[in-house]
Amino acid sequence: MKSSVLKTMLVAVALLASAAQFAQAAIEILVSSEAGDDGQRRVYRFDYDAGPLPGGGQNPLVPHFTDTAPFYPRGMEMGPDFKIYVAGSGSSAAVGSGLVKRYNIDGSGETTLISSGTQWFRGMTVDPASGDIFVSVHGTHGQRYSSTGVLEDADLPGVDATGAMKVVGGNLYTGTGNFINRFDLDGVLINQFPNTGHNNNDFTDLVEKDGIMYLVGGSESGVFRFHLATNTWLDSGNAWGNTGSAGLIYAGIAVAPNGQITVVRNHSNGGNAYMFRIDDNGTMLYPTEGYWFPMNTGGDSGEIVFTPEPASLALVGLGGLLMLKRRR
Question: pTM for the whole thing?
Answer without folding.
Answer: 0.85
